[in-house]
Specification:
- The protein is an alpha/beta fold.
- It folds into 2 domains: about 100 residues, no CATH class; about 210 residues, Rossmann fold (3-Layer(aba) Sandwich), CATH 3.40.50.150.
- Helix content is about 45%, strand content about 15%.
- Strands 5, 6, 7, 8, 9, 10, 11 and 12 form an 8-stranded mixed sheet that branches. The chain has a 4-stranded antiparallel sheet with strand order 2-3-1-4.
- A hairpin with a 6-residue loop joins strand 2 and strand 3.
- It is globular.
- It starts with a helix and ends with a strand.
Length: about 400
């Protein structure tokens, strides 16, 4: 590809905004595109792809370019990551040669990993240097496009046939399809008819970990826009009662049209005033199964959201860990005797994962841990990461996920 001067100018302008890290990159991009409606699909694809490449490889690109200027980072990405020539970019050959020959192996490990120093140090402390680098490199790989088939209405085999796209069944999730490319799936008839949803394979496994049964009372305590809620409803075959709870009315509002499209009728949205909402407390001790997909740093999704590693620091992670414990303790009140509680994050840090669940077991009486490997085996999912579920991009091809399951005595 040979970018036009206009594409380069727009990419540089977007990058200058993104590198302030004032907000989520996807929202910044969307706002820019809304303000420049003359941009075509190819223009937008080029701008987004190159901007995300810079966010993903910011430290190695800075080292190669010898600068943090948006334009130089953009050009360095086009040369190093996309293999463009100096002629295609109108650059002098000595600049291109310097960018190409800049050695990464001589840089400090945190630069090689394209991570902030503090996050690299935390990973080394928790995982060891070799595994930390493997994790970091896995998070630099592009994420695939995974779909969850609505098994309540169509089989995975039929969905694969009717999609008419190159893809295959996911190895872990019984409902997953991984596509070879990234088409505009939201325009496909199967998506419009609610027969498939976009959902990472790792995220799909959380529904199987909660394993709701038909006719039960179930709560998705941090439902957001309802992707996992819909997966739970699929397993319940729209029977029983499924509460979708969240503090964001706007995000919960996105669930209704998705549920209608999927043919789901047992979801009951409940906007919470906070983790101690009075309406939620009326359900105390009545819910069979509760899922807590807690707000987190999202470092397990850096393949998709590379800006997070530059936007969040250790102070933010510490604050999140306290919030996660409060949410988990509040959600635990809903669980009936003999009921199941699942805590999950898309973080790769122990502070948000093991530390939270260990504190929960110490400070909240009446719960004991369950084996995630055993639960998944009961669901005929051959995945054993120990008593807790840990998913990694470099090992499992999914986003990074953590989950722990508990039973109320």
């Amino acid at each position: 590809m040979k970018p036009t001067p206009g594409q380069l100018a727009h990419a540089e302008a977007v990058l200058a905004q993104l590198l302030t890290f004032a907000g989520p990159s996807d929202q910044t991009l969307s706002a820019y595109f809304r303000g420049h409606r003359q941009l075509g699909q190819r223009d937008r694809a080029f701008i987004a792809e190159t901007a995300y490449a810079v966010l993903r490889r910011k430290r190695t690109l800075e080292a190669a370019a010898g600068s943090c200027a948006p334009r130089l980072l953009l050009l360095a990405a086009l040369v190093r990551q996309f293999g463009l020539s100096g002629r295609a970019l109108g650059l002098e050959s000595d600049f291109v040669a310097r960018i190409r020959s800049a050695g990464v192996a001589t840089q400090p490990p945190a630069v090689q990993a394209d991570l902030p120093d503090w996050l690299w140090a935390r990973l080394v402390e928790q995982q060891g240097g070799g595994e930390a680098m493997r994790i970091a490199r896995g998070l630099l790989e592009p994420a695939p496009l995974d779909l969850r088939v609505n098994l309540a209405r169509i089989s995975r085999e039929d969905a694969l046939t009717r999609l008419g796209l190159e893809g295959h069944a996911t190895p872990l999730s019984p409902a997953g399809i991984r596509l070879a490319a990234k088409p505009a799936i939201n325009r496909h008839p199967l998506f419009l008819d609610g027969l498939v949803e976009v959902q990472d394979e790792g995220s799909q496994l959380l529904a199987y970990l909660l394993a709701p049964r038909r006719g039960e009372m179930v709560a998705d305590f941090c439902a957001g826009a309802g992707g996992k809620t819909l997966a739970l409803a699929m397993l319940m075959r729209s029977s029983g009662r499924l509460y979708a709870m969240d503090v964001s009315a706007k995000r919960l509002g996105e669930l209704a049209p998705r549920a209608a499209r999927a043919g789901v009728s047992n979801i009951h949205p409940l906007v919470l005033a906070g983790e101690n909402d009075l309406r939620a407390r009326r359900l105390a001790g009545k819910i069979d199964r509760v899922l807590v997909d807690a707000p987190c740093s999202g470092f397990g999704t850096l393949r998709r959201n590379p800006d997070l590693k530059w936007r969040y620091g250790p102070e933010r992670v510490a604050a999140l860990a306290d919030e996660q414990f409060r949410i988990l303790a509040a959600a635990a009140r809903l669980v009936k005797s003999g009921g199941r509680l699942v805590y999950a994050t898309c973080s790769i840090l122990a502070e948000e994962n093991e530390a939270v669940t260990q504190r929960f077991l110490r400070e909240v009486a009446g719960f004991e841990a369950l084996s995630c490997a055993r639960i998944l085996a009961q669901q005929r999912i051959a995945l054993d990461t120990g008593s807790e579920l840990r998913l990694w991009p470099h090992r499992h091809g999914t986003d990074g996920f953590f989950a722990a399951a508990f039973v109320k005595r």
